[in-house]
Amino acid sequence: MAAVALSCSSASSTDEAAPDAAFGLDVADPLPDVTPVEDADGSLPGEDAQTSDIASPPDALPAGQVAAPPFGAVDGPCAELAQLLLADGPSFRRNIFLFDADPFDPDDLGPDARPMYDAPNAGGSSKCSEIFSMVALDACLGADLYKTETTIEYTAEGSITDLEITVGGERYGVSVTRAYKGPITEFTSADATALLTKKLEGINESTANVAPADAWKRQILYVWTLNEDWSDIVWDAWKTLDAPLKSDTVVIVTIESGAGYVTSDTCDD
């Protein structure tokens, strides 16, 4: 399997300016559609034609990209996202995950994502989105899997977190969700508000209940969606939420492009 490009970066955790600039995206330029339009030479808009093949060796990748074999590249600067995790207060960032259309093969998963594929899921149909959240965070931040959702310990029953990672020696909870409604093509502001409210309430509850041995520094809410418009809707909804609900959660919205992996449970159904 080849080919993923992922953009990530940061800005002040309290800055509510449009999040595109924080990801190395020109605010004046729209994000690409789910299937990017190629230039005449076959490169993506803004890419240098000499370095547009993301299957090339790392030193041949476009400037700012970090290799993420075997799935492609992360378009940085990811180091700033790592700094954001160490900051205080809530933040919102978004990026793009450009997938190759090759069939999914679990043997392509690395040592952090593969245990998630093999482990039982605590329920729902989100295993694949959780797996590729780990892939993205590993590529961008050098994140390591600390625990899967069924092995994190809590002091009380309630909402649980999907996975726990370590970055730079610190532990972070990661809750994963998807901003789309199956075959329904409409995604509204009310949908986004309800989704964020439910997930952030769950994050606050799991943070309050996590056992001291598994306690994390803060949580990441990783939201997958299918096009730019829906990510805009999530962004607009997030800005209206009360500060206590957002707490100090880092929200990352990723636009999936070129595949349908994260809309499935097992990545290949």
Provide a descriptive summary of the structure in words.
Helix 4 crosses helix 5. With 269 residues, the protein is of the alpha/beta class. The chain is built from six helices and nine strands. Strands 4-9-8-7-6-5 form a six-stranded mixed beta sheet, with helices on both faces. Helix 4 links the parallel strand 7 and strand 8. The chain is globular. It is 25% helix and 20% strand.
Measured distance between first and last alpha carbons? 17 Å
Could you give the order of strands across the largest sheet?
A: 4-9-8-7-6-5
Shape: globular
| Number of beta strands | 9
Tell me the structural class.
Answer: alpha/beta
Reported for the largest beta sheet, the result is: 6 strands, mixed
Unreliable runs: 1-15, 21-59
Helix percentage range: 25-40%
Please name the defining characteristics of this protein.
269 residues, alpha/beta, six-stranded mixed beta sheet, three-stranded mixed beta sheet, 6 helices, disordered N terminus
List the SSEs and their pairings.
Blueprint: E1 5-7, E2 65-68, E3 72-75, H1 78-86, E4 91-98, H2 113-118, H3 127-141, E5 144-148, E6 163-167, E7 170-178, H4 189-209, E8 218-225, H5 228-240, H6 243-246, E9 250-257
Parallel strand pairs: 1-3, 4-9, 7-8, 8-9
Antiparallel strand pairs: 2-3, 5-6, 6-7
Helix pairs in contact: 4-5
Summarize the structure.
With 269 residues, this protein is of the alpha/beta class. 25% of the residues lie in helices and 20% in strands.
